[in-house]
Write a structure and sequence with these properties.
single chain; 210 residues; alpha/beta; Rossmann fold; six-stranded mixed sheet; globular; binds the ligand Nc1nc2c(c(=O)[nH]1)N(C=O)[C@@H](CNc1ccc(C(=O)N[C@@H](CCC(=O)O)C(=O)O)cc1)CN2; binds adenosine-5'-triphosphate; ATP binding; metal ion binding; FTHF_cligase-like_sf; 5-formyltetrahydrofolate cyclo-ligase; 5-formyltetrahydrofolate cyclo-ligase activity
């Protein structure tokens, strides 16, 4: 052994880690994570303060905006989501899209920290419990969505999303550059910036309703 510092013990290398091939600064990552966790708590609290009736009205308004944005849904493969933690409930809209000829799908986590898959769903689909107790279609039928409707916890002025903090949508969208992404939420989701990091992916369209 020599006392020459090895690359792995030098400060410059300790201050970096690889996230999906991205080089990032650990101090920045820590500060950004702290900011985002505090912002998530504020946004969860705002969401919780909304009455069920008001949330339903927002979801209905978002459904109308989605119809305008998507146009004729026939044969389009659309990913939506099964609502958790006070997210807007779009299941009536999803059933309506299905009746108009769209092919619907829901996110499925194949494993922790891995990209999401999207499995075929119809209003008749039998459901089972997936990770984090989120219901998923019992039959596993992965699809390649044309449109991905993403629930917003927060969204910033540059169309970057704040979600539940697992990084799942970022990992997923990084591998699906051709899908058109639509972030949906209530107007109070808006924040100035999430301090975007190399792994964050901007959404193509943002739809917000009062
Ligand atoms: N409706 C809906 N479905 C979805 C998502 C979503 O945001 N909304 N997802 C979008 O990603 C995936 C689930 N993502 C999730 C990410 C984190 C946690 C969660 O509970 N995290 C813990 C921390 C766990 C840990 O540290 O390992 C927590 O917040 O307490 C739950 C779901 C797939 N399905
Ligand atoms: N493409 C990726 N590869 C590896 N790690 C990633 C990737 N994207 C995000 N992460 C990691 O996931 C963690 C959470 O990311 P972020 O704060 O962006 O979550 P989020 O977008 O709010 O979560 P979610 O998409 O699950 O709702 C970060 O520590 C980040 O390093």
């Amino acid at each position: 052994m020599t006392d020459r510092p090895s690359p792995s013990s030098s400060n410059s290398c300790m201050s970096h880690q690889l996230v999906d091939g991205h080089v990032v600064d650990l101090d920045t990552v820590r500060d950004v994570a702290r900011f985002r966790n505090a912002t998530r708590e504020e946004l969860y609290a705002k969401r919780k303060a909304v009455s069920l009736d008001a949330r339903r009205a927002t979801a209905t308004a978002i459904g109308t905006l989605l119809n305008e944005a998507i146009g004729d849904p026939k044969n389009k493969v659309i990913a939506a989501y099964w609502p958790i933690r006070g997210e807007l409930d779009l299941r009536d809209w999803m059933a309506n899209m299905h009746n108009r000829g769209a092919i619907l799908s829901l996110p499925v986590m194949p494993a922790k920290h891995q990209p999401l898959e999207f499995h075929h769903w119809t209003p008749q689909s039998e459901m089972q419990m997936g990770h984090f107790n989120i219901p998923i279609p019992a039959a596993s039928a992965p699809l390649d969505p044309d449109i991905i409707v993403v629930p917003l916890l927060g969204v910033d002025a540059a169309q970057y999303r704040l979600g539940n903090g697992g990084g799942y949508y970022d990992r997923t969208l990084a591998r699906r550059p051709n899908a058109h992404t639509i972030g949906i939420g209530a107007e109070f989701c808006q924040i100035q910036t999430i301090f975007p990091q190399p792994w964050d992916i901007k959404l193509n369209t943002i739809l917000l309703a009062p």
